Each structure stands twice: as structure tokens, then as C-alpha cells.
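re: that chain from earlier
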Amino acid sequence: MTPDPSSPNHPLEAPTPSGISLAPRVPICQSDLPLDWYQEEFKPYAEEYLALPDRTPETVLPWLDSYVEPALNHFGDSLLLLAHYYMGGEIVKLVERYGGGVSDSYVLALQARRNPEKKIIVESAVHFMAETVALLARDDQRVFITNPKAGCTMEMLAKDHMVLPAVDQLQERYGEDLLVIAYMNTAGRIKAIAGSTGGAVCTSSNAHKVVAWARKQNKKILFVPDQHLGRNTAWKLGMDLDKLVTLPDPKSRGAAWTLEEVGLESLDQAEMLLWGSACGVHTIFNAGQVRWWQERGWQTLVHPESPLEVVQAADGVGSTKYLWNAVAEAPKGAKIAIGTEGHFVRNARVEAARRGVEVKHLAEISEPGFSHAGCGCATMSRNDPPHLAGLLDLLRRGEAPDLCEVLAGDVVDEVTGSRDRMDAAERDQLTRDAQLSLERMIEITES
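^ sequence. v structure.
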């Protein structure tokens, strides 16, 4: 596969090991996981990695090559490596280095479909992303995740055991007039709910198109799971924000609430209901941070998972692809403060500096009254070099852990690593419903 042309190009950007150009003594930024965090099958690789004298490319890359190159030679063109923009910089660099692709969630979701010749797909991202690839994969394609415990805090607050009771109550009151929109950051079980209600999946880049389509259906919309993306999309479309109702916070209430507690009159009058969860990475931002940078001549760009006040104050708002392209196209001398996941900003900073563009994280303000933080997605960062080396080596040997293979409907506990897998009949039904919601998104987006 040719890497997504909009993906980051790093000092370790060569597509094959033989063409690599090492940046001198540049440390690899991944924080080491404790040994007891690894599955038993991965512990030998982790022990070797943790015993390395340092984390510079000169040390890590030869170690990785000893495992990855035999796997690449073994599988040839049938192997596809993928990673998301938000991965820690070293995994982004490594996946590109070994000929893989890095992109946003929408493009990643389509990779199995767009590359039918790829039979083994290995994704270094979070579980829902790998599952979405699996939902659209052909029967002869197998999807693996380097670390099955890599999750998403937002998705963790919208598990099916939380969402289904709410959907059941809403359907009891509104029947077929309920339409569910599932953000890409959800498990297949939630995407299937969207499909079964005539709804669709959306991403941060196409949410406005999907919500605009849903409004034409003249149904009550339930937007799951990010309340901020839902609210920002409504604002972008000029919707009456008074006709939005945010459901109870699942962190404190789970599924233990009733429609009566929310207020039947407000629910009846609402055009769109917002699931009550959010992304912890993006809720650290506030409008004061935006103004601080603007007052000093910096352009401010934010992701739409940020609170509405941040989006309204910023100079630009958009998906990870939008943010990356804005940096890539910025003229020399530009100064850009970005409000999104910390690994992404660090990756963008490296690329921008090569062209004379300054990039800062929106929360990097070392002044009294500001919370200095550059939060990266800790759960996504659970994919590290030992997981990548170990999985590829184990796949080559025919000994890949069953837990690393991702099937539609799989739910993995992000702490214990235990998995709930559906039987074949349940999985087939879920796949049909989830595919409907994904197909609607694709049709809406690409028509």
C-alpha cells in the first residue's frame, strides 16, 4: 500500500529499512510499559526491548528489523500495516518506515475494502478502529491489533451495556422515529444500533454531512458518544442549540437513569439528543487558551471534540486530516497553536519545523492561571515497539495470540484484556447492521 499522502513524514520516513536515514541521537518518545502489562506471548519481546541501553533509533531500529524484516519478507504484498495520526510518534514513524499507511479514522476504515490483495492487516491504533476495518473486510482478510487493550476513553463510556438501555427507553417512547448516529469512536455493537435504526456512522470530518442528512429524515436523532462533537456540529449547521438535550454523564450514572429524570417535555421538543460522554484529551482546552495565543499573533486550530466555547473562539476547526493539512500548507514563518491530542501535535511540530513553521500545543502556556498540559492519548499509546515486533514475528511463525485477532462484535476489557466474542449468528447480524451504518456514511460522504 502507498501511504496516505497526507500522513506525517518524519525523520524516519523511508518506506523500507534499506533506505532509512537516521536522525542523530533522536530519542523515541514512547513511555515504556511495565513488563506485567504485556500478554505472556509478548513478554520475551518486551524484556529485550526494556533491556536496550537507550531508545534512540540507532538502538531500537536494528532490534526491530530483526523481527519485522523477516515478517515483511514472509508475507510480501499480502501484509498491510496501519496506524492512526494520534499514535505516539515512534509508531507512526515505524509503520511508515516499514511501508505502511498512517491516516485518520475514515481512511483507515476503508483500507481492507480498498486493498483486497492485503490478506493480513495489522493496525497500531485502538480496538474500535481495527474492528471497523474488520467490519468492511472480505472473508479472506484477517485483521489484527498490536495491543488489544488499546482503547478509547470516549468509547469506554459508550459500551453497549450503557447505550442499549437508553435506546430501549427512547424506542419505547418514539418507536421508529428514533435515528441513531454513531461516531466512528464506537464499537461495532453501537454502529449496529445505528444501522438498525436507519442511522449512520460519522467521523469528525463528515459529521456535519451526516447530521444534515439525518435531519432530512424528520426523526429524533441520538448522537453517540461525543456530546461536544454533536453540539459543535449542530452549531456549524445553524441548528437551534436549545433543541439539544444532553443525556446523563455515563461516568457517574452508567445506564442507571430514566427518561423521566431527563425530562420528557424537553426530550419531546428536542431535535437531537447527545450522549453524555466526551474525550478527556480534548476537554482540557478552554477559550482563554485560544485568546492567549491569538493575542500573541498565533493562528489557533482545534479539533471539534473540544468544547463549543473553544470551537467558537478558534480561527479554524476540523478533523485530524484538516489539522495536518493546515500545518503542511502553512507558509514559512507561520505560527500555529493546535488544540488536539499531544502526540499529533508533537508529530506536526517536527514536520513543520523543517519548513520554518512553528507549532505549539494549545495548552502549552506556562503562566499562572493556566493549566500547562499537552495531553496525549494514553490508551492509544499502549501500542509500542515490542507489540509491533512481537505480533509480526508471531504472525510469521503462525503463533499470533487469538486475542490480537479482531472480529466484528468483539469487546475487550481495556484493563484485564478479557474478551467477549459473539457466536457466528450474532456476529453475522451485527455485521449486517453495522455495515448498513457504514455504507450510509460512505454514500453521504462520497456522493
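The chain has a mean pLDDT of 88.
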